[in-house]
Design a protein that fits this description.
Strand order of the largest sheet of chain A: 2-3-4-11-5-6-7
Largest sheet of chain A: 7 strands, mixed
Strand content of chain A: 5-15%
Number of strands of chain A: 12
Number of helices of chain A: 10
Helix content of chain A: 25-40%
Oligomer: homodimer
Largest interface: A-B, 91 and 91 residues
Order of helices and strands of chain A: EHHHEEHEHEEEHEEEHEHHEH
CATH superfamily of the largest domain in chain A: Malate/L-lactate/L-sulpholactate dehydrogenase, NADPH binding domain
Number of domains of chain A: 3
Shape of chain A: globular
CATH class of the largest domain in chain A: Alpha Beta
Structural class of chain A: alpha+beta
CATH topology of the largest domain in chain A: Ribosomal Protein S8, Chain: A, domain 1
Chain lengths: 360, 360
């Protein structure tokens, strides 16, 4: 079933308005939520709308947040997002990075007391519109066991880096620091498939192929999967993201990060407020002439796309799959699983909104 | 065979002086080279001294470089290192980052026209002495094949991030963006061992267990090792490091990065000068009170070290193994393989220096 993007946006926007978001915040949140559907990261899009609604019902998401900023330098800022939905906080934070970079060359913002913000790559991409390099990081629900650990100490903690080019679409790396993001498990759950060895471990730390294992106390493994294939590196990257996003901002970090699903209890003795994000934007023309840099990025991309393939699979530049899906879905609409549509209709009924499927 | 660190430093310093380094540059280069031996990253230490000497003989390393800086913002700088050894360039670059961060909160330096700089972590660590967070990146000889590629397009391109704590030694992530760094292959070569599946591929892209495979046209694989275990993420990280270090600085990038070994020819139609590095330093007190942040890092470290183990192996904080080796080797000296000692003595004889082993 294909739906126009605007239909997803309108529904999400109406839902956010119904829980007291301002019209403007509702619209922006809906746009940044469904950007995931547009770019093909279906797990982070409208399928999660109920999750955000549940966070509101549990009192963990403030629909009318008052942002407070603090700063001691023209380049560095902390934003207390007052339990905002992550979309609004992240959007404001990246705008502040860009504004600071306009005058001083670089801006960095740490966000505390926030909630999940969808796909990280879209905030990094905001910087490329000004020919800046953008980076976005967030911590997330603890689902990942460090190398040799049984305990879930980290989230899938993504790293996003976006770089502008001259004639090409920007380079966009947007990756979970785990072997596989949660969304990949959800796809296997729907298909009743098995996960490759190295994605998941059982509660006792032994390997599992079961995509439902996390519901029985299992954990995701850091990128690298096994000690002898470098899983300490994936763990180290997830740790660095947690430190920048959580420790530095004043938010929760490590095992204290509040879970996205509102039915799980919060950890005891929280070490901060909500979840945390971290953003950077800086000017490429602080290093090279802008035109020269953008041209060099085109050369870089051409060289990598032209590398010789082992197996007839193309050599991709990070971001290529998402740009392709964005183009396709802009034309053809967004494909949604029947179960997702059914759940959105049920949610609408529960809270007295017009059904998702109506008006098509 | 154990040797005092000062003995390694003195020998390396004498060698650098013999090829026309200033006394000061020779001493500093020797210290930053052998820091690798001290911290247990033996592949990057004095065992590589001949490699630097050969770069000088090949005319690729300028012992008397004149650094030139350019800058348009108080936070961002490009350094043309005039074919300097990487140690001196990297040290100056990180000092500049720190000085900029003192007044503006953050400093970033891109270095072009440089050479290899040893272990990345030591430059990131310089920032922690001022209670700043430090990051260091470099591109390197193309040895790594992107996901699905036969061609060697990237170096082992390390990411180093160092974070200060209150009572603990700093957090130090210092990782190649490949499954295994070159040094791990060298250890297997000495032992005639086989590499785990996933580290290396043959010239045709199929898997290899042979640690000598790179000499027959093989390549290292990015962190993740296999497409279904996320090797596109390791590739994406290595790519981001190449872009920051090479594309942004004006240095060579991708397959054009000059090889460390001087007997390999340079690529044709070079796209820049030498190899490139990238450095960042920023103040933690731009986000939280310094004491509060440092205390939170201690809490973070304690929590992770206390996670429950699967297999009685301890859960480590990134940097723990290197701090332990540094302590041990400060007391007991640096262990060197007989083959390394023999090679250093041979090198001394070739160029008319007193033997490495003399005076012990």
């Amino acid at each position: 079933m294909y739906f126009p993007l605007s239909h997803l946006e309108d529904f999400a926007s109406r839902l956010f308005e119904s829980i007291h978001f301002s019209k403007e915040d509702a619209k922006l949140s809906a746009k940044l939520l469904t950007r995931a559907d547009l770019r093909g990261i279906d797990s982070h899009g409208i399928a999660r709308l109920r999750g955000y609604y549940n966070l509101f019902k549990a009192g963990r998401l403030n629909p009318e947040p008052k942002f407070s900023w603090s700063s001691r330098f023209p380049t560095l800022f902390t934003l207390d997002a007052d339990r905002s939905i992550g979309f609004i906080a992240a959007n404001e934070a990246m705008k502040k990075c860009i504004a600071a970079a306009e005058t001083t060359g670089v801006g960095m913002v740490a966000v505390t007391n926030s909630n999940h913000f969808g796909i990280a790559g879209q905030y990094a991409l905001m910087a490329t519109e000004k020919n800046m390099i953008g980076m976005a990081f967030t911590n997330a629900s603890p689902l990942v066991a460090p190398t040799h650990s049984k305990d879930k100490m980290l989230g899938t903690n993504p790293i996003a880096i976006a770089v502008p080019a001259l004639t090409n679409k920007p380079f966009v790396l947007d990756m979970a620091t785990t072997t596989a993001a949660n969304g990949k498990l959800e796809i296997l759950q729907r298909k009743n498939g098995l996960a490759p060895e190295g994605w998941i471990q059982k509660e006792d730390g032994s390997l599992s192929l079961n995509p439902n294992e996390l519901k029985s106390g299992g954990a995701l493994r850091p990128l690298g999967s096994f000690p002898n294939l470098g899983s300490h590196k994936g763990y180290g990257l997830g740790a660095a993201v947690d430190i920048l996003s959580g420790v530095l901002s004043g938010a929760n970090f490590g095992p204290w990060v509040p879970p996205f699903v509102s039915f799980l209890p919060l950890a005891e003795n929280l070490v901060g407020e909500g979840i945390g994000h971290f953003f950077i934007a800086f000017r490429v023309d602080g290093f090279l002439e802008e035109h020269v840099f953008l041209k060099r990025m085109d050369v870089w991309m051409d060289a990598f796309r032209n590398a010789e393939s082992i197996d007839s699979e193309p050599i991709l530049v990070p971001g290529d799959p998402e740009w392709k899906l964005e183009e396709e879905r802009t034309l053809k609409g967004i494909p949604l699983f029947p179960s997702v549509v059914k759940d959105l209709n049920a949610l609408a009924k529960e809270i007295g909104l017009e059904a998702f499927s109506s008006g098509l």
